Amino acid sequence: MKMPSARVALSTLVFSALTLVLGTSCKEEETKLFEEEGVWALESYALDGLTFTQIDQVRKNTFLLRFSPGDGVVAAANCFASGSSTSVNEATCTINKNSAEWECRCYAYEFTDSTMVWQEFAPGETPPPVGNPTNNDSGGSDEAGDEGGDGGGAHQITIEETDSSGTYRYVTLPDGLFDSDGMTSKHVFRIKADSVWTGADIDEDDVNDLDECSMSCFPSMAGG
C-alpha cells in the first residue's frame, strides 16, 4: 500500500517542477523595457535629434499617446486651435479654447525589448498586421498607405531610458507625428493618469474631447 503513495508523491513532485519550469519560461518571454499601457504626455523633444526643448505650459498635456496592449494599438492625439499651427512649438489650443480641435492618428504596434514597430491605419478601420519596418538599418522611408503585413511600411522606434522615473525617449516617432522627421527626431514621454486623456475637455463643453479618437482607434472601444 505504500508504493502507490510513493508513486503519487513522485508524480506530484515532477508535475510541480515542470510547472515551475514552464512558469519561469513564460516569465522570461516578457522582455519589454517597460509596461506601456496607459496615457503618456510629451515632456520634451529634439526635432533635430540634438537640442532638447521642454514642452511649455501652453502645450502641456496636449501631445498624447495612449497604449492599449489588448488591442495592440497606440493612439496619438494633439490639440490645436482651428486654422492655426499644430506644431509642438506653436499650437495654442489651450489659449484659444473655443476653437480647440484634436488630431487623432492610430497605429497597430508590437513591442519587444527596447524596440517598438508601429503600423499606421486610418481611424475607424481594422488594425492591420504590423509589417516590416522600412526605417531600420537597411534604410528606406515610411510608405504612407501601406496595409502592413508582409508588405512593410511600418516604422521602427528605439525606446531609451532616461534619468527620470516613468519617462522614456522615443527615437524616432513616425514621420510627421508631433513634428518628427522620422529619422533623427527624439521625443520624451512621461506616464500620466488616464484622466489626462479620458477627461480631456479643452473647449469646456462637458464632452470628452478624445472619446471619438479612442473609439476610432481601439477595437475594444468601438461603438462604445
UniProtKB/TrEMBL annotation:
The keyword Signal applies. Residues 1-19 form the signal peptide. Residues 121-157 are annotated as: Disordered. PROSITE patterns: PROKAR_LIPOPROTEIN. Keywords: Signal. It comes from the Bacteria. This is Lipoprotein.
